[in-house]
Structure formats: C-alpha cells, structure tokens
Amino acid sequence: MGRLEGKTAIVTGSGRGIGKAIALAFAKEGAKVAVVSLTPEKIEETVGAIKSAGGEAIGVKCDIAKPDDITVAVKQTADAFGGVDILVNNASAHAANVKPLTEVTAEEVHAQMDLGPIACMRFMQAVYPHMEQKGGRVINLATMLGIMGAGLLAPFAMAKESIRTLTRVAAREWGPKGITVNAICPFAMTDGLMAMGKKFQEAGAGGGGPPMPPLGRIGSPEEDIAPLAVFLASGEAGFLTGYTYMADGGGAIDAAR
C-alpha cells in the first residue's frame, strides 16, 4: 500500500476492463487518478468505485480520436491535481475486422492507427511538459498479436506493434529527463477479447486468435495485469525503460526481447 502516494495518474479507457483494473489498483496504492473514457456511465462507475474505497479520482470524458479532447483531458487532470506523473495509454480500437490481408483496406489501417499509436503519441506529447522537469512514468498497452503477426488481424496487429515502436523511441529520447516508457502486452479476459473471438467464429475461422498459453488460462485484469502496471509506475521500476512486458501466461514466450 502507498507505492504511488502523492502521484497523479491518467488512465485512458478506464471505464472498464484492463483500464478500470489499473485505475483501481493505482488508487489503492495512493495515486490520484483521472478516469478517462468515452462513456459517462462507465466513468462514473470507476470513479465511484475508487471513492468508495477511500481513493481520490476525477472523471474525464474523452474521445481519443480527437486531438482537442486529449489536450483538454490532460489539462483537466493537471488543474485538478497539480500535475501529471503517470500516463497509462490503455484505450484503443478493438479488432474491428477479421479478414485476409488481401481484403484489408487502407482506411481500416488508418482507423486503427488513429486510435492506437497516434492517440498514444498525442497523450504522451500532452503530458510531457508535466514530466519534463521531474520525471514520470508512461505505460503503453500493446498486444502479443502484433508480435506474433496474427493472421486475419492485420490492421489491429500493425497498429498495436507500432505502439511498441513508439515506446522504444520515447524511452530513448525521454530517458535523460527521468521519464520511463514501457509497454505491456496483456492476455486477459476482456470485452475486447470476447468480441474478437466472436468475430473469428463469424468469419468461419474457428478458434482463431491467440491459443491458450502454457499456464493454461486467460489472465485476469485485476490479478494479472494491474499489479504489473503498478510496479512499472512505482519507484521500484525507475531503472527500467523501453521494454515490453508480456503479461500473457507465456503465450508469446521469448517475445519480450
């Protein structure tokens, strides 16, 4: 308890799933949290859960496809809490289409890029002035599907893998400022994972997508992903930057490097 005491965190896509689990875990460790999401009802749920547990949080409605929304979200957080110490880029597009590469359109790739690495980059640019003088933590959520080159998911896999590249570039550039930038590739039970499985079935691809990992189960956002995010946001991870952490039960063994 208290590993993030005195810190302010922005967690995007924290109305549900992995983002919500991270927001709750951060608050439990003492961070003041900006719950950033597109759906007001989901924002209220997460903020309410944090406050009920004795934590401090604000809700910020934000469409990550809109640059102005991102600027406003960061400003609201800084105005409310006096700065920004931690950014978790969790929000992104789900795997919208399951189709062969020969049928993928440039528009589908652009849509995934806008809600993936471009939105991440904009958030990172917006928080940088708040971290430049004092250091900070940036955690980007990617996927093992990009590393594996998962079939039938080209736009989604391409966008998510670009997030890892963005992570490495920022880690090199921002390291001298004391800002660490790392990525997590989770494999956990979320609405997005279930929707992707359904799309594979509808496309007649059977049990496509990632196979069951060696540990024999799908991860839990609360028990398997959020604790790793807390560690990377804490002082204990101050000498780790530019890396990808595979919270996937061994699903992509040896891919972290």
TrEMBL record:
UniProt KW Membrane keyword: yes
GO biological process: fatty acid biosynthetic process
TM region(s), chain numbering: 138-158
InterPro entries registered for this protein in UniProt: NAD(P)-bd_dom_sf, SDR_fam
MF GO annotations: oxidoreductase activity, acting on the CH-OH group of donors, NAD or NADP as acceptor; quinone binding
Keyword Lyase: no
Signal peptide range in chain numbering: none
Keywords: Membrane, Oxidoreductase, Transmembrane, Transmembrane helix
Pfam families: adh_short_C2
Family affiliation: Belongs to the short-chain dehydrogenases/reductases (SDR) family.
PANTHER family: 3-OXOACYL-[ACYL-CARRIER-PROTEIN] REDUCTASE, SHORT-CHAIN DEHYDROGENASES/REDUCTASES FAMILY MEMBER
Name this polypeptide is given: 3-oxoacyl-ACP reductase
